[in-house]
Write a structure and sequence with these properties.
Structural class: alpha+beta
Largest sheet: 10 strands, antiparallel
Number of strands: 14
InterPro entries: DUF317_SPDY
Strand content: 25-35%
Protein name: DUF317 domain-containing protein
Pfam family, one: SPDY
Shape: globular
Strand order of the largest sheet: 3-4-5-6-7-12-11-10-9-8
Number of helices: 5
Length: 268
């Protein structure tokens, strides 16, 4: 394990706390759920959670629901999208030890407009030199260290889905499944976050016991953590405000109804 002094401001009397940068990120453990939920809330999503119950977030148009339930087995994240327009119903499930930063790759994308470019799930993996090709009859991409994978899976009955996950030699890890109808730009957003080489931060006592991870010890001030978290929330609010402003200022394309000359006036 490497040690490093994290640089930043130091208000008087503030005590630095020990954290760890963990890589590969896929084996860093679950993390703080607020990394996902606070961004969604700042993006206009409704928190429908009940006191003492699982986390439940609902999109502004009520077309998508995201829940995290640690009280059932196997527990974890469930994302469900309703049938809407040309989009069929879809779902995704992610195990409870899926790092929140990887979950956020998918859930953050739900708040963004779709790109005009055709999505490619494999591209982010290839850019990070994942090994891709047929494996046991399914097309699979595996991380260079072999700890994480992404697979397009099709069973004998013809049912297709995306399957992903990470595992070390001691059995620690998680899996994620996506329906074949899950929008491809969301699966690509997930794969990009999964393959990212950037480490993720975990506080002392929340680092998994695994010989497959590398850690760097850093000293972090509480004010630094708060500022980083607030920057993410502020970015979500700014993006939401910009989208709403464009939508509200968009010129109408349909003619307004009007009365013919000499017609009766509407009462006030």
């Amino acid at each position: 394990m490497k040690k490093k002094q994290w640089q930043g401001w130091s208000p008087g009397g503030e005590q630095a706390e020990q954290h760890y940068l963990v890589e590969p990120r896929a084996l860093a453990g679950g993390g703080d759920l607020r990394h996902v939920s606070e961004f969604l809330r700042a993006s206009g999503w409704r928190d429908a959670s009940t006191p003492g119950g699982p986390l439940l977030m609902e999109s502004p148009d009520r077309a998508v629901r995201i829940s995290y339930d640690p009280y059932v087995q196997p527990g974890g994240w469930t994302i469900h999208g309703k049938t809407s327009g040309q989009q069929d119903e879809w779902w995704a499930t992610l195990g409870r030890q899926t790092p929140v930063e990887i979950v956020a790759g998918l859930t953050d994308a739900l708040t963004h407009p779709r790109s005009a470019h055709a999505p490619n799930v494999w591209e982010p993996l290839q850019e990070q030199h994942w090994n891709a090709g047929p494996k046991a009859g399914h097309y699979t991409a595996t991380s260079p260290d072999g700890s994480a994978w992404m697979q397009f899976h099709q069973d004998p009955s013809g049912h297709a889905m995306w399957w992903s996950g990470a595992r070390d030699g001691q059995g620690n890890g998680w899996t994620a499944s996506f329906s074949a109808t899950t929008p491809m730009h969301l699966v690509q957003a997930f794969s990009a976050s999964l393959a990212s080489p950037e480490p993720v931060m975990r506080p002392r006592g929340r680092v998994p016991h695994s010989t497959a991870i590398r850690t760097t010890s850093v000293s972090v001030l509480p004010s630094q953590l708060s500022a980083w978290q607030q920057a993410r929330i502020t970015a979500a609010r700014a993006a939401t405000w910009a989208r709403n402003s464009v939508r509200n200022n968009r010129p109408r394309t349909t003619a307004r109804p009007h009365t013919h000359a000499g017609g009766a006036r509407a009462r006030r």
